[in-house]
Amino acid sequence: MYEYINGTLAALTPTYAVVEAGGIGYFINISLQTYTRLTDSREAHLYLHQQVREDAHVLYGFADADERELFRLLISVSGVGAATARIMLSSLSSGDLTTAIATGDVAVLKSIKGIGLKTAERIVVDLKGKSLRAAGGGEAGLAGAPAAGVRKEATAALLALGFPKAATEKAVEAVFKQNNRQSVEELIRGALQRL
Question: pTM of the entire structure?
Fold first, then answer.
């Protein structure tokens, strides 16, 4: 099993990269997230997942270990293959995908091409309690990702009450930083004291 590859970026498209390392060009399937991070780069450092099939050995590359971890969790769900997981990671950021799973937002998952209602529900049921790092968000995890949903819900409630967006987001973030294990109601109460 390969862990990562460092090398010269010989070719880059939205679906694959060719990385030359040790005189060998490796064809690596990537998501749009990884493509965006590799654009304008000459060198590549990709975390790898190798899939061995009867007819091929396929490499999938990720710009960070968190995205690879989410990919591995997705393919562990019955009915979600590597191609579907890659489409999911191309359609939503890792953070948005993690939040959708953690909050049980089946509608967001269904909006991804190739994901039906039953598959979306299965993803939520199978992965909701599993921890992982949300890309760019540190040790958030699926178990901790509801915090993003709590902040979003509290902000939406305060905006509906007529508070200005910038002030609301600042207040919610400040209260959240004091204690990130608050319920929506506690977060709203704390933010109201600051507004």
Answer: 0.68
